[in-house]
Write a structure and sequence with these properties.
The protein is an alpha+beta fold and 359 residues long. It has twelve helices and twelve strands. 40% of the residues lie in helices and 16% in strands. Keywords: Magnesium, Metal-binding, Transferase.
Length: 359
């Protein structure tokens, strides 16, 4: 297939043949970028977030001077918005007490320092202290030693610096997923982290074009190159090449606009991905087989219907919560989005129309 400049026509191979991208797809790039810009947190938001962490650090260090606080998740990985809550990990040696005892003590300390609505939620899968910071209005969840999340946050933040389109694509996909109701793990759909992890792969495999492999190479490079960052968590080594200043403009030969990349993303997940056989491997920057992972059948609560391998906890499927009902909903949403981007007169409006659940 020709890769030549503006005149080229983008195509994907579907289950029924080739599909050609609409000729005017590029005209929607500015609208999509406007949406992306509107999602970015303000400088004031980031400043208040920093002040909150300073306040928490003062409270914690009085009791545990050697403990460390780490921001993690959307508020720290560059994919956050002005609506993102603050997630904090307290890294601490637990010693002779239990994690629950430590959380209860943390809640006492924060109440004593006049934080609002402090609550220790010890029965959650990841036990937390939840609180409200009246000064900023932020809701904040604090967990103990969830260091895989800290490592994953750094990984995503580093990826985001390699090519600005990766951040744009993943942020827009996450925004779409929230509005369409497929970004809620408690409903059996996908987490924000899962969306960040698999967003690039729609573009990697959608086009039969060499220069579109840039996103795969981003992942493959930082995970497969000689590690410059290592954190050991529960005997698992989280290691990758994090000197991302050396990888900037890595995908410069690829000229796809955000509109073309988004078109490729939705068409890949609607028409190309083999849900029966394939696993998205962020670690390897490619698709691997369910058979290779032994993810062919349900194991416990892990259903393995849409498989995304965690880059560090490689036995962890980020799509494990998806069930037979929600996989149908997710695939229908991919197909709807693909149709909107291919045919709608105003896809930037229609694509993000909120889905309302029937009561």
């Amino acid at each position: 297939m020709s890769h030549s400049n503006q005149s080229r026509r983008l195509q994907i191979r579907t289950h029924t043949g080739w599909m050609e991208c609409r000729h005017d797809i590029g005209t929607f790039a500015s609208g999509l970028l406007s949406i992306y810009e509107s999602l970015k947190p303000s400088e004031e938001h980031l400043s208040k977030q920093s002040q909150l962490i300073d306040s928490l650090t003062k409270s914690v260090s009085k009791e545990w001077p050697n403990a460390q606080l780490h921001l993690y998740g959307s508020c720290a990985n560059s994919f956050g918005t002005s609506h993102s809550d603050v997630d904090v990990c307290l890294e601490i040696k637990i010693g002779t007490g239990s994690e629950v005892e430590l959380l209860l003590r943390l809640a006492e300390i924060l109440r004593g320092d006049n934080f609002d609505s402090v609550e220790a939620i010890t029965s959650a899968r990841v036990p937390i202290v939840r609180m409200l910071d009246a000064g900023s209005g932020f809701s904040c969840d604090i967990c103990i030693n969830n260091l895989f999340a800290v490592a994953n946050t750094k990984l995503l933040k580093d990826y985001a610096q390699i090519d600005g389109r990766l951040l744009q694509l993943a942020s827009i996909v996450k925004h779409w997923a929230k509005l369409r109701g497929v970004n809620e793990t408690y409903r059996g759909t996908l987490s924000s982290y899962a969306h960040h992890g698999f967003a690039p792969f729609g573009t990697v495999h959608a086009y039969d074009m060499d220069d579109c492999i840039w996103m795969a190479h981003h992942h493959h490079s930082v995970m497969a190159m000689e590690p410059t960052y290592t954190m050991v968590v529960d005997d698992t080594e989280c290691a990758y090449f994090d000197e991302v200043h050396q990888l900037r403009d890595f995908g410069a030969e690829n000229k796809e606009t955000i509109a073309e990349l988004l078109w490729a993303f939705f068409h890949y997940w609607a028409f190309q991905h083999d849900y029966r056989k394939d696993v998205i491997s962020i670690r390897m920057g490619k698709i691997i087989s369910k058979k290779e992972k032994n993810w062919m059948t349900r194991i416990g609560n892990d259903r393995h219907l849409i498989c995304i391998e965690d880059p560090f906890e490689t036995g962890h499927d980020l799509g494990r919560v998806v069930d037979r009902q929600t996989i149908r909903i997710i695939r229908e949403e991919f197909e709807r989005a693909a149709a909107v981007l291919q045919h709608d007169d105003d896809p930037c409006m229609t694509l993000f129309e909120p889905y309302h659940y029937e009561k």
